[in-house]
Amino acid sequence: MKTRNCGNLTVSEIGMGCMGFSHGYGQIPSEEYSIEALRKALDYGCDFLDTSEAYGPYMSETGHNEKIVGKAIKGRREDVVLATKLFIGTGEARRSAYDALRKHLEASLKRLQTDYVDLYYLHRINPDVPVERVAEGMGRLIDEGLIRGWGLSMVTVDFIDRAHKVTPVSAVQNIYSMMERDYEKKVLPYCQANNIGFVAFSPIASGFLSGKVTADTKFVGDDVRRWVPQLSQRNIAANQPFIDLVSGVAERKGCTNAQISLAWMLHKYSCVVPLPGSKNQERILENLRASEVELTDAEFRELENGLADLKVYGRRKEVNMGSEYID
Fold it and tell me: Around Cβ 96, how many Cβ atoms within 10 Å?
């Protein structure tokens, strides 16, 4: 697989979000199945694996996902660019953001069975913890060799710029797809100009752009798609023009809708690394094979022109500090 840069890190141009092996998509697979899926992704050429301390069944078992990833990469650590995340609570950072970072990281390292993490994200901004203090602490962890780079998740340019001035940011992980394009206004140009990787989570719009989600699809258990407004029965029907647009190109290219969705963002921005997530081995490999799909300039323009005319029904919004977390 081709590679892209996330600051000082080089990663496969499509990464793998590992959350689904622990929660978020209903019934989780067995540990054996999950480990096999991760190793198949590595064998294909995907070296960029993304996890978090928070990923666990119903968000109650801290580190469940990290333990699975750790077992999967055992003996292959040098072949992996490993990303994980933390959230700093207000109380634990009153004395020292660095101490809080170090405590969380040490626990993650133990679960991941490694002595360093390649990319360490602040999972969400805590308004009570200045991002500059976090950036300073991350810089110390880099100097100590415990992490190689650091990043922020679901942030605007203001936060990125404040942090980047203290310790250079390697990557920003925000939601991005054909149906979530707000970050094209400011964040993506900033990342492109400052050699910061933009890691796009939910790049297939929670599976909607695959064309496999219909008004009859039932989401059960802790499946996060139960709360995604684009996937209500009414909005699935209203958003059908997105499927029609992508399907037209996919049929002519002889590939899947999901692959076109990923190829579109790879073609558009050199700093973007899509991070599709799935718990299904077949779907994981399908997504990774989007690296084999190259859009022509004419096909890309067709998609761009079509998207410009479409309205998204049920836009997803992140809320932080009482306001929409969008530029």
Answer: 13
DSSP string, 245-270: HHHHHHHHHTS-HHHHHHHHHHHH-T
CA distance linking residue 3 with residue 123, whole number of Å:
24
Q: Examine residue 189 and state whether it is found in any structural domain, yes or no.
A: yes
CATH number of the domain bearing residue 85: 3.20.20.100
In a domain? residue 134: yes
Is the pLDDT at 317 greater than 70? The verdict is no
Q: Any idea which residues carry the catalytic annotation?
A: 55
Count of structural domains, the chain: 1
**Is 299 a residue whose pLDDT tops 70?**
yes
- 119 Cβ contact list (under 8 Å, min separation 6): 6, 9, 81, 82, 83, 84, 147, 148, 149, 150, 151, 170, 171
79-122: per-residue pLDDT in tens? 999 999 999 988 887 778 999 999 999 999 999 999 999 999 99
Q: Is 302 part of a structural domain of the chain?
A: no
What proportion of the chain, given as a percentage, has pLDDT over 70?
Answer: 96
Give residue 52's domain range. Answer: 3-207+259-296
For residue 236, being part of any structural domain is answered with: no
